[in-house]
Amino acid sequence: MIDSASPIVPETKTGSPEEPAQNKAPWRLALVLAFAALAGGILLTGVSVWFLGAVALAGLTPAALTFNFHVPAAFIRLFALTRTAAKYGERVVGHRAALTDQVLRRSTLFAAMASAPSVRKAGWQLGNQDRLADYLDDVEDVDYARLRVSLPSATLGIAIVLLVAATLWITPLAFVPILLLITANMVGARFLAKRATADLAAARESRQEASRLLGTAIQAVVPLQAERRWSPTLDEPFDGYANAQTRALVLRHWQALLDMLANSLAPCAMLSILVSAWLSGLRGEALLPPALLAFAWLATAEPVLGASKIVVAFVREKTARSALAQWNTPDGVTHKHVAERISSLTLDRLPRHAPDGRLIGKPISTTLKAGRPTVLHGASGCGKTSLLKQIAGWLDASDECVLGDGVELSVDARRAMICFCAHDATVLADTVRENLFAPHASDDELWRALDAVELQGRIRAAGGLDGWITQDVLSLGEAQRLNLARAWLSDRPVVLLDEPAEHLAVEQGKRILDALLQRLRQRIVILSSHDDLIPKGATAVRLQG
Amino acid sequence: MLKAILHRRDQRPTEANPPEAANPEARTRGRTLCVAHGLAAPGLRSTLALQAARAVLRLAFIGLAAMFVGELISGRANWPLLGAALASLILGSVIGLVADRAVANTEMKVANGLLEAARGALAAASTGDIQAMPLGTLIAGLQRYPQALAGLAVGHRLASIMLGLGPLLAATAIMVISWEAALALIVLTPVMIVFFVLIGGAIRSGAEAQEKAFGRLAAQFADRIRTLPTILGNHALTGERRKLGARLDTYASATMSVLRIAFLNTGIIDFFSSLSIAILAVFLGLGHLKLVSVPGFADLQLWQSLFILMIAPEYFAPFRRYAEQYHAKAEGLAAATALDALVLGPRPQSPAFESAIATRDLVDAASPLPRTGLVAITGPSGSGKSTLLRHLAGIGSAPSIQPDADERPEIAWCSTDIYVPEGTLGAAIAWGNASYCQTRLLPAAGTVGLLDEVLLPGGLDALIKAGGENLSGGQRLRIGLARALISGRAIFADEPTAKLDPANAAMVRHALVEAARSRLVLVATHDRNLALLAGTTIDLGVGNRQARERAA
């Protein structure tokens, strides 16, 4: 489809600057193979028809006995094999190139995501399964764009240009209707691209809106059911989903229209070549080259079938790129910093910020010493987590407000020296060992950590240190204890624990916390708690909202 | 009033259980899949007819075009034939358009029907079941699975029917010219199928061997993105990045080795379709040269041999289309399984069911509840305060039986997890009460201290973000309380003072006591100050023990 090729090729080259160096050679090979496959198919049909025509004409004369059919027959077999082998090669090489790119891109993307400020700020949005699924769709749309858009459109573009050239040479008259058809297809493709942009965006928006509403409703299921408002509250989100489906349907209707246009290109080209050859007075043998060309055109019908898919994949890629671009704004913080040992941490009139930037309460001034844990108390919403994140260098806090042993600490320095145990810590789909993030610890040490958080039995049952665990395998309480084991193993001078006793039974929480604080007795430890938990030897600080 | 509800609940075990137990097999067969096929059935027949018509017209065009060309080369321009070819092309295109649209329409009907079924299942599910659902997975699934299933129930189904019909049509068309040629194609088919079976087996065994490690690797990127903050908090970025790179590499090469075999599938079809052209061209050519005289391939007109040559690839096209649908099938089946597990399938008996029986005695002890006054449910944490409150509200976590709405008390629920719509504070308080007027909202918001809230500036016009994410638990609770005060209904409050600072807690206690003058206010609380203000107290520390004794 030349129409889809022309708008696409220049734009796919302008990737974001962070794009890793793509492996060019496999793609070139894939393009060559793709073209060989298409050419093989075109020639197979064209030459077969020419051959039949030639022998049929020869068969009527004595020339039949001297007709050398071996050469064309060999060519026909060659084309058949080329088409099959090249097609297979194209698929394998193309997919391998796409997968190699994917590995490169995803590694780079992961690093870019890690330096995006939003990871550290408020709740991690991609921690939500539905947001994550959208994100992954975007990543995949970009990953496979070359395979779905560039490769087929380039191949088809080259083939059509060659066929047009041959048409101009053999039957120039036929070029007029072909040109008209190609123009119509191009206009159709452009129109579809515009529609697809609008429809995909609208469908995505109403899907996301519906998901937000449904999420809100499900989280409020108890009040809603008690008040008998559950069922009506579901109406709006499900209407949103239905609306998204309708937009998708509209797009498919437009796709069908372009497909119809594209499908008529090859047959019409074929008929117009034959008719114009006849009208320009060619007869008998002289008609054979136009017949070859005509059937060559007909052989492009199959690849042209995917025209509307190429256009939609192209639009999806563009949308996905811009959606992914929002993550690619690194916060300018370098992560290389040696963790220094400090024995006191001073907060000097630190203005307290919420994640959205507004101020909470009065600025805080306090000095935290190693060996004397500090508990932050306060009602929900008074900014305990935000203060921890400010100290950790995850939320804005100017350097002069946080001092280590009396020296100003930069954001980098704080990030390097602080182990931050968030209250919504997650479990990686990996082995227990990898989940403990202590590559240098011995097995013995790891088991002691698990023992301290009362997970030893559970982990033994799950297959030991090399057993594979996932988020779903562990209960909330078990995940929380695993998280505390990470803190137990941490070698950083400052350890921040956000709601360490959450999801734990009161007694167990106390026991584990005591053991943990005993282990961390040389370090600066700050923990937050919404109830009035005060471990042994800890100082309490009450935060006001 | 409450007694009547409880009586109904008493009957539940005998009434609701036997039917569930009676037909477990029908349910395990995949309810979602049955629903999807049921939804697809009405549209499928007409869609299939359209597709068949398109296939016939396509064959007609190719055949007529071959005849036209054959005669043209032989020296005769048969214009009516050209007209007929063009007519079948145009008609075929139009029918193709209609058919494509019909497929899209049917698929949407299936997807929407599935969504509607999911909606119904959600609406009917009990509180406990809904809370047990993995929220993110459910939402992500509702966005994607219905479409995937529609693809299986319509697109894939049509392709598999056309797999039977398409080659038959092509063979019939060729048979008109030369039954020997048609026979040759049909004989080729079992050979191709043997290849299919061989390779299909190879793919399956290859995939099964790799599946375990493969499944783990497949989700590594998604998993690392999901867990990024934890990785950062524990300084594990460098290690994780290296590991991710290595695992993606392994995944990519494992995928390639599966794909290499999987592509053989389409490769075989390509091979046979190319080969058929090559063989037919040579045989037909030799026939024209009168060098061989294979019956059915000799003494043919040029248009006849062109006809056979051009129709032959059409014989194989449906096979390829079907093979290309293989991932649609896999995706659809996975979606069906997932939707079954999420919403539509049968649900295992809730373990809360037994505790519900124990709670029933407590409910008996609690009723009848007074029409007005403050009633407090107290007890140590974990003693079932909230559970009892839910049971009294008629939403026990055991399998749902819905007593008649008119027998239930009109309740306003007040807790930190109330529904807060996006918009303004005023709208959030007025939500669900049709009469939205400032004169009623202002005093209610004032009573619970929401108007002079520093953290929520702007009074009734204060902005509330989607999902109420800029609200603290205490603010949500107070919005719920203001809403409950306006509604005039009985107030059921779950730990209304737990997440509040002392000043706000006092304000809420006061508001609850005031409200209790004119209606029932039932609170589950461990706040001693609140319990002291109650006219009646249900102490679960005692109640539970009694219940256990009675059960023994």
Brief synopsis:
Chain A has 545 residues and is an alpha/beta fold. Chain A is built from 18 helices and eleven strands. In chain A, the strands form three sheets. Chain A has a five-stranded parallel beta sheet, sandwiched between helices. A four-stranded antiparallel beta sheet of chain A has the order 2-1-4-5, with no helix packed on it. Chain A has a two-stranded antiparallel ribbon with strand order 7-8.
How are the elements arranged and paired?
The complex is a heterodimer of chains A (545) and B (552).
Chain A: H1 2-13, H2 24-59, H3 70-114, H4 129-143, H5 145-170, H6 175-219, H7 221-226, H8 230-279, H9 288-299, H10 301-304, H11 307-325, E1 344-350, E2 364-369, E3 374-377, H12 384-392, E4 402-404, E5 407-408, H13 411-417, E6 418-421, E7 430-431, H14 432-435, H15 443-452, H16 456-461, E8 468-469, H17 476-489, E9 494-498, H18 506-519, E10 524-528, E11 539-542
Helix pairs in contact in A: 1-5, 1-6, 2-3, 2-5, 2-9, 4-11, 5-9, 5-11, 6-8, 6-11, 8-9, 8-11, 15-17
Chain B: H1 2-22, H2 24-28, H3 31-73, H4 79-124, H5 127-132, H6 135-177, H7 179-218, H8 220-226, H9 228-233, H10 237-288, H11 302-324, H12 326-344, H13 352-366, E1 373-378, H14 385-392, E2 411-414, E3 423-424, H15 425-430, H16 438-447, E4 463-464, H17 473-487, E5 490-494, H18 502-515, E6 520-524, H19 528-533, E7 536-539, H20 540-551
Parallel strand pairs in B: 1-6, 1-7, 2-5, 5-6
Antiparallel strand pairs in B: 3-4
Helix pairs in contact in B: 3-4, 3-6, 3-11, 4-6, 6-7, 6-11, 6-12, 7-10, 10-11, 13-14, 13-20, 16-17, 17-18
**Domain tally of chain A:** 2
pLDDT < 50 runs, ≥5 residues of chain A: 1-18
The shape of chain A, in one word, is elongated
What's the CATH topology name of the largest domain in chain B? Rossmann fold
Order of helical and strand elements of chain B: HHHHHHHHHHHHHEHEEHHEHEHEHEH
- Overall average residue pLDDT of chain B: 81
> From the 3D coordinates, which CATH architecture of the largest domain in chain B would you assign?
3-Layer(aba) Sandwich
Number of domains of chain B: 3
Please mark out the parts of chain B with pLDDT under 50 across 5 or more consecutive residues, or reply none: 1-28, 398-406, 545-552
Number of helices of chain B: 20
Reported by name, the CATH topology of the largest domain in chain A is ABC transporter transmembrane region fold
Tertiary shape of chain B: elongated
Going across the biggest sheet of chain A, name each strand in turn: 6-9-10-3-11
Q: How many DSSP-defined strands of chain B?
A: 7
How far apart are the first and last residues' alpha carbons of chain B, in Å?
Answer: 29 Å
Task: Report the radius of gyration of chain B as a whole number of Å.
Answer: 35 Å
CATH top level assignment of the largest domain in chain B: Alpha Beta
**Helix percent band of chain B:** over 70%
Largest β sheet strand count, sense and barrel closure of chain A:
5 strands, parallel
- In quaternary terms, these chains amount to heterodimer
